[in-house]
Every structure is written in C-alpha cells, then in structure tokens.
Amino acid sequence: MRMEASYVTWIKRYMLFHNKRHPHEMASAEIAAFLTHVAAQQNVAASTQNQALSALLFLSRDALKTPLDFSLDAVRAKKPKRLPTVLTKDETLKAIEHLSGTP
Predict the structure, then answer these.
(1) Contact 19, 34 (CB under 8 A)
(2) CB-based burial of residue 80 (10 Å sphere; 0-12 exposed, 13-18 middle, 19+ buried)?
(3) Is 93 within a domain?
(4) Domain that holds residue 78
(5) Which is nearest to 73 in space by CA: 100, 101, 35, 38?
(6) Which residues of the chain have pLDDT under 70?
(7) What is the pLDDT of residue 70?
(8) In this structure, is residue 102 part of a structural domain?
C-alpha cells in the first residue's frame, strides 16, 4: 500500500511539473526533464530519484501500455560517498579495556 501511495504521489508530481499534461502526451524527454529537476533543483537522494523513475516506468509500461525509450538522458542524483570507519589497533585495545562482563 505504501509503495502504491508513493507511486501515485510521484505520478502527480510528474504531471504537475509538466503543467497537468496527460501522460499520454509525454514521452522519455519529459521523464528525463522531470528526473533532472528532481535531482538538480530538489537535491533528492539517488534512491529517491530511482523511486520516481520506477513510478514513471510503471505508469508508462503497465498503466498506459506505451513503451519507453530507455536511453533517458537525465541528470542522476549522486550516491553519497561513505568511507568506512576503521579503528586503529590502539583505539581497538582502548575500547576493549573498557568492556566488562564475561567474554
């Protein structure tokens, strides 16, 4: 249910972004423009942009029965670079010293 509600929200946002045009009147270029807007102006996470893309693919493929050109030329949201936190040998030994209880 939550995914369905999310897809409906993305489809509404897509239509509002394009001045309430019917999705039958739009194609890959409009989807790319919307996804670029979401990534560049609204600064959403990559997973959020992927969710919007999935909703629009569902709309096109399953609801409207219109194939899409999969060469969408949209700006993609960047995935955050996460460096792993690694303790040094000394930091690990200090943490172990503060532990109590049965090993």
Answers:
(1) no
(2) exposed
(3) yes
(4) 2-97
(5) 35
(6) 69-75, 79-80, 103
(7) 64
(8) no
Q: Which residue, 6, 5, 3, 66, is CA-closest to 31?
A: 66
Whole-angstrom Cα Rg for the chain: 22
Please answer whether residues 76 and 49 qualify as being in contact, where contact means their C-beta atoms are separated by less than 8 angstroms: yes
Q: Let me know if residue 103 belongs to a domain.
A: no
Entry pTM: 0.66
pLDDT in the model for residue 72? 67
Residue 11: exposed, middle, or buried by beta-carbon count in 10 A (0-12, 13-18, 19+)? middle
Confidence (pLDDT) at 7: 92
CA distance 101 to 47: 41
Q: Which single residue is written with the structure tokens 């943490």?
A: 95
Rounded CA gap, 66 and 81, in Å?
36
**What is the tally of structural domains in the chain?**
1
> Where residue 38 sits, what CATH number does that domain have?
1.10.150.130
